[in-house]
Amino acid sequence: MPSESQSLPFDPADPKAALSQLPQSSAVFALYGAEAHAQPYIGRTPSLRARLERLLQPSPKHPRRLQLAGRVRRIVWRLTGSDFESLLLQFELLEEIYGPKSLERMHLGHPAFIRFLGSNRYPRITVTHRPSKREADWAYGPFASRASAERFSDEALKLFLLRRCTDELDPNPSHPGCVYSEMKMCLAPCYQGCTDERYGEEAAAVESFLATRGESRLVTLRTARDEASANLEFESAAALHTQVQRAEAVRALAPELVRPLSQLRAVILQASANPGEVAVFLFENARLRGPAPFSTLGMRIQNEQSGSSSLFAHPVAIEPIPEPAEIEDQGSEIREQGTGNREQGTEIRDQRSETGSQGSGIAPGPSEQEVSGHEFSRVAFSPQLSGALASKESASDPPPRLSRSILEARMEATLSSLKKSAESPSATVRQGHLALLKRWYYRPEARRAGEIFFPDDEGLWPVKAILRGAGRVAAKMLTTADPQAGD
Predict the structure, then answer these.
(1) CA 57 to CA 67: how far, in whole Å?
(2) Interval 462-482: pLDDT, tens
(3) What is the pLDDT of residues 193-227, one digit of tens each?
(4) Angle at 479 between CA 314 and CA 453, to 5 degrees
(5) What pLDDT shows up at residue 336?
(6) Which residues, 6+ apart, have CB-to-CB distance to 200 below 8 Å?
(7) pLDDT of res. 385
(8) pLDDT on residue 169
(9) CA-CA-CA-CA torsion for 170, 174, 179, 183, nearest 10 degrees?
(10) Which of 45-59, 269-283, 291-305 comes out lowest in average pLDDT?
């Protein structure tokens, strides 16, 4: 178990003494026997005490239930905040003990990928469960299942003229061809129906389609459609619009998680076992890292059940609250300034009386009450009473602009800490982490706790969006901890 774990000795003669000290929280646990070489029993549970009471406290009502009390001498556990964290920690513990067999114990199979065979003289695509690390740039996934990967592959090939046969081609004009070449759905390189250069262009278009989940094809078709419409070629525009709709339908079959394996990166936010924190996980280089704690201190978190039209405000840093002594000093300054304003108003009134008697035509100025009241209200409702002192600035001066907020810097530091351990994972860890990510992502939305974020087109993390997601995760933690918070 990691260093954050807790340990407790267990006496089979008095099981209640140890079980009463266990928390009723979600955890991953390991039960160790008296022999040092014995393999521990590892499991995960949403309630540690209830689970171990069933395993370590004999019950005459359930004689067939698994009982380990006679073999256990030590209990080790680590609290977790989410099922995602529990599964990852359980896999890491099993992998240390059982190696590749840990995949079978947790039923973590190979995820399905679409593989682009670009090294072939006449490239084609196929569905595989074992994408090679050497060709990670040409493996696209993971998909929810092999059936979903095959469906996407079949529908994508309908948009192109790439070959579907699996033979090693030796182009010959005497080759009989296949049904796809007769239906004009293939360039037929088998009997030299096209040049190698033309087939290479089609293969490159398919590779780009897979890498961008159809965006490259859509951009080309939309541009051509708009040009045809601008040139009043409405029949061509209608035909191109039909192709756009077909490409969009194919694209919808590939979720956002489907990416080139070498470029598959994601930030996953989960609830934390520690209050006031959100657990951050990073998937990069086919490996999950984390959890890294992200403190929600300084974030404005609103309750989902509060009835607000904006459920979650943008994360902001908490402003300092003035002490009572500071408020009293500010009140003294305001009173002194108000006295000065009244004296200024008296002086203006006297000056107006003099100018009015001379008949110079100057419009009468504001009264003492108007001058004093206006100036006092401007001072009284200044930001001095609501937080930190703010110096007066002219209306022409632009407001101060910060390069980055405190929370953004905090999140970037958290992500940087996860990138430090960049060692290459083993084949078992690579497959297990991919399977865990795929299993969590393709759960029904109602059961998929947490949030996931992907980098933008430039490879940068959307830090502001991640912060808003952290606020949502923290709000759900508060709601779970206090179900009556919104009443």
Answers:
(1) 7
(2) 999 999 999 999 988 887 765
(3) 899 999 999 999 999 999 998 999 999 999 999 99
(4) 45
(5) 55
(6) none
(7) 34
(8) 87
(9) 100
(10) 291-305
pLDDT at residue 421 in the model: 61
pLDDT at 20 over 80: yes
Least confident residue range of 103-107, 317-321, 457-461: 317-321
Q: Report pLDDT digits (tens) over 281-339.
A: 999 988 999 899 998 887 776 555 544 433 343 444 444 444 444 445 555 554 555 55
Phi first, then psi: give them for residue 315, nearest 5 degrees: -60, 135
**Using CB atoms within 10 A of its CB, is residue 270 exposed (0-12), middle (13-18) or buried (19+)?**
buried
Domains along the sequence of the chain with CATH: 6-79 (3.40.1440), 112-213+254-260 (no CATH), 264-317+405-481 (no CATH)
The whole-number pLDDT of residue 43 equals 93
Residues contacting residue 377 through CB under 8 Å, at least 6 positions apart: none
Residue 360 is predicted with a pLDDT of 38
The amino acid at 250: V
Cis peptide before 291 (omega within 30 of 0): yes
If DSSP states are collapsed to H, E and C, what string results for the chain? Answer: CCCCCEEEECCCCCHHHHHCCCCCCCEEEEEEECCCCCCCEEEEECCHHHHHHHHHCCCCCCCCCCCCCCCEEEEEEEECCCHHHHHHHHHHHHHHHHCCHHHHHCCCCCCEEEEECCCCCCCCEEEECCCCCCCHHHEEEEECCHHHHHHHHHHHHCCCCCCCCCCCCCCCCCCCCCHHHHCCCCCCHHHCCCCHHHHHHHHHHHHHHHHCCCHHHHHHHHHHHHHHHHCCCHHHHHHHHHHHHHHHHHHCCCCCCCEEHHHCCEEEEEECCCCCEEEEEEEECCEEEEEEEEECCCCCCCCHHHCCCCCCCCCCCCCCCCCHHHHHHHHHHHHHHHHHHHHHHHHHHHHHHHHHHHCCCCCCCCCHHHHHHHHHHHHHCCHHHCCCCCCCCCCCCCCCCCCCCHHHHHHHHHHHHHHCCCCCCCHHHHHHHHHHHHHHHCCCCCCCCCEEECCCCCCCCCHHHHHHHHHHHHHHHHHHHCCCCCC
109: tokens are: 């199979």
pLDDT tens across 416-441, in order?
A: 999 876 677 888 999 999 999 999 99
CA separation for the pair 124, 245 (Å, rounded): 24
Please report where in the chains the tokens 């239930």 appear, as a residue: 65
The count of other CB atoms within 10 Å of the CB of residue 97 is: 13
For 43-70, what is the mean pLDDT?
82
